């Protein structure tokens, strides 16, 4: 990875984090259908935790206990959200 692409990648991870939080906020304040609300929350969770993992992988400092904690729990939250997204997808792709 070249030094000139590093700031772009870090900016992209922050943009993905913002998108994830935006989906999470929309699930609370915009969506009324309960299953669709849950799906927005799960999508937001996957985006936020994957961006956090990417930022931890890109950092150039020593890892703290918080970093190690996030490395352990992030894949668990991502997996749980993906499983729940798979279970709420419906047979025909409908909303419930």
3D structure, described in words:
The chain contains three helices and no strands. Helix 1 packs antiparallel against helix 2 (34-58) and helix 2 (34-58) runs antiparallel to helix 3 (65-87). The radius of gyration is 16 Å and the shape is globular. The protein has helices spanning 6-29, 34-58, 65-87. It starts with 5 loop residues before the first helix and ends in a 9-residue tail after the last helix. With 96 residues, it is mostly helical.
What's this entry about, in short?
With 96 residues, the protein is mainly α.
In total, the number of strands is 0
Helix percentage: over 70%
Q: How far is it from the N-terminal to the C-terminal residue, by CA?
A: 43 Å
H/E topology pattern:
HHH
Choose one word for the global shape.
globular
The structural class is mainly alpha
Q: Low-confidence segments, ≥5 residues, pLDDT <50?
A: none
> Main β-sheet: number of strands, strand sense, barrel status?
none
Radius of gyration: 16 Å
Overall mean pLDDT stands at 89
As a percent range, the share of strand residues is under 5%
| Annotation field: number of helices | 3
How are the elements arranged and paired?
Blueprint: H1 6-29, H2 34-58, H3 65-87
Helix pairs in contact: 1-2, 2-3
Which features does this protein show?
mainly alpha; 96 residues
């Amino acid at each position: 990875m070249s030094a000139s692409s590093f700031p772009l990648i870090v900016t992209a991870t922050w943009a993905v984090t913002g998108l994830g939080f935006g989906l999470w906020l929309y699930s609370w304040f915009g969506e009324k259908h309960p299953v669709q609300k849950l799906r927005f929350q799960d999508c937001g969770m996957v985006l936020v935790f994957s961006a956090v993992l990417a930022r931890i992988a890109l950092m150039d400092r020593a890892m703290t206990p918080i970093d190690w904690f996030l490395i352990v729990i992030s894949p668990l939250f991502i997996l749980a959200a993906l499983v729940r997204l798979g279970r709420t997808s419906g047979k025909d792709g409908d909303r419930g």
